Structure formats: C-alpha cells, structure tokens
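Reviewer 2 asked us to include a model.

Predict the structure of this chain.
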Amino acid sequence: MDTENTPATDSAAAHVVVFDSPVVSQDCAEALRGLGFRVTCLPMNEDTVMGLMGSRPDYVLTINFNRYLSEVCELLKVPYLAWVIDTPCYPMYDGAINHAHSFTFAYDAAIAARLRARGVKQIYHLPVAANLSRIERLSRQDSDEGLAHDISFVANLTRTEYNSLIQPKLTQQTRARCDALIQSLEQPSELFTLADRIDGGLIGDIQQQSGYPLAGETYLGTSEKLAYLLGREHSWRERIEVVRRLEARFALRVYGNSEWQGEIDCHAGHADHFEQMPKIFQRSRINLNLSRSFVEYGLPMRVFDVLSCGGFLVTNDKADLGKLFVDGKDLVVFRDTQDLLDICAYYLEHEDERQAIARQGLATVREKHTYELRMIDLFTTVQTVLRGQSAPMSRWYS
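Predicted model (structure tokens):
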C-alpha cells in the first residue's frame, strides 16, 4: 500500500521512491521533502517493487542494498540508491552492486575502498546522521524521569551463527584455532586483517565438522565471510564482559533484546527507537557506545542518536571519530575497559565538563551531520556521475 504523505510541491520536482525500513528511511524521506523532492514511501514487497514498472520514479532509495531492486531499476534505467548502514551487509557483495544504474553508499569507508579496489565503480562512503527535528518534536512527561540513569547502554546482544551453529560441532583443536582468532581482536587495528590469517585448511575443517554452508559472494571471499562470523562472536563476548565490569562498579542500565537476560543483572528491557530511546539519551548522565570489533572505520547510528539528543557519549575508537568529531570536545573516547571505568568515574563527578561536552556534541551534529546534509551529499554524487563526471569516493577520506 502506498504510504505517501507528500505535501504540495512542484510537480516538476524529482520523484523519489523510498522503501520503508525499521529505521533511517523515514528520516531520509523527511529530509528529501524538505529539500524539495516529491517523495513516496512504500513497504518492501513484491507488489510494490513490481509497481515501479508503472510509476517509473526518478530515483529509488533503500536502506541497505537489495539485489532484486537493483535488477528492477537496471531494467527500468532508474538510478537505484542504496545507503548501507549495517556490517556485515552480505547482499551488497552480489554482482548486482556493479550495475550501471546502482549507486551504493557505505557508512564504512574501508568497505567502500575495498569494493572500489575489486572493481565496483559506483560505491561511495556516507556516514549515518541525525534527525534533530524528530527529536525536538518528542513530548516530555513526568513519567520519563524513570529513564534517568548514571550510565545507560542501549543496544541489542545478538547471538551469533558461530555460537549457535558452528562452535558446538567443532573438534577441540578447531575450536581452539577459532578462539585464538577471536581473541586476536582484543588488539584493535585500523585494518580488518583477520581474514588474512584464515587459511583454506581451517575453512575446510569448519565446513566438514559443522556442516555450516560457509560460502562467499561475488565481492566477498569465504575467508572474509568467516572473519565476519568470528568478529561477531568477539563482539558478543566483548559486550557482555564490558557490561559486567561496569555494572559491578556503577549504577548501569542496559536496554535491549532478551538475549541480555541471564548474562547481566542490569537489563532494563526493550527501548523503542523513536520514543523511549531518545529520552534515555537525554536523561542519562553518561551514554555508552560499543562499536563492534569487526567494523573498521564506521560509526553506528547510536553515536549520532545520543549526540542529537544532547546526551553525553563515551565510546570506543573508530577511524571516523577523528574525521567527524573531536575527542574531549564533542564526546569522549576510551581505549580499553580500564580506561572506560576511569572515564565514567571522572565524568560522573564533573558535571559541568560533562554537560559542556554534550552541548558541543549536539552543536557539531546540528552543523555537520544531519540527514539533510547527507541527502545533499548523496544526490550531489549521483547527479555528478549522471552528468558523466567523476565523483570522489568520500569527502572525508582522500
């Protein structure tokens, strides 16, 4: 069903179909309308995808890459714009990403650069963003005071394929090899080098012992696929360990899915993304971000969500932090778990400094990291290429 709620606008304006996703798509649609585009929001199903044959919009936009939409848009010769905000996003490694009418924007510059090196021509870097207007429309109620905590962490704990489907079937020797690789991610690196340390013998042993269909894609090798699986397992373990150390010392609340239950004592249930989550960020004295270990450069939405709410953020390091924000001015970066504990203790005792950093973080997001600015970057890139000119892979990384 068409969910278009487009205000009156110039009928000659470009028409963008935005396919719905749980997050980000509506923020993009709102920004595009503000920029003067005609926007139609549609649910993702076979009927709406096939309906593009009749409507023939000027552009199609999705959150994350959809190979079937890429095929349809290629047939129609309609520019297909995919903003990839997840790691891993396995569909983006399909050969369809290299269609002439597909333009893919990855939130992680390292992924974009790697795919460029492998022959994907129209892959670009675009960090995620914040919708300040949506946050400002939230109502404040007395009942929200229960969401105020010393330290909050809003994140799901995702049980991994390795944990559930692979590890229980491995021999002791193969499991030890995998554990050593997982443990190696305790040493942060700017390069995702885990795949380079995975050989064909280990891949064969895992496939034979577990029966797991470990296969790559056109632009993703089998060793890289296994590296993602092991990296996700590391992040599962890391999140539990960090939260346990924090809750042993501070008044911490973790909001997320039910997988946290039984692992920690401070689980506070699910937080709705659009209503409850921003209020937690606004009211908590410290908000935590733990970017996943297998993400190379990119920052998750949580960074922008916290700062857009005027929240104080403490986060682990990623390369994009040095490109988009200033440590100690917009937010605070920790280097290891002991550093995190020390930082939390300090800023719980220094309210003026904490609030000043939170205010500056909000100001930086307002100036540089809104959805309007991201949509301008995205469409400027696409229109430059459509004119037959070259566009940089990233304006943050040369």
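Residues 190 and 296 are 6 Å apart (CA to CA). The mean pLDDT is 94. We have added this to the supplementary material.
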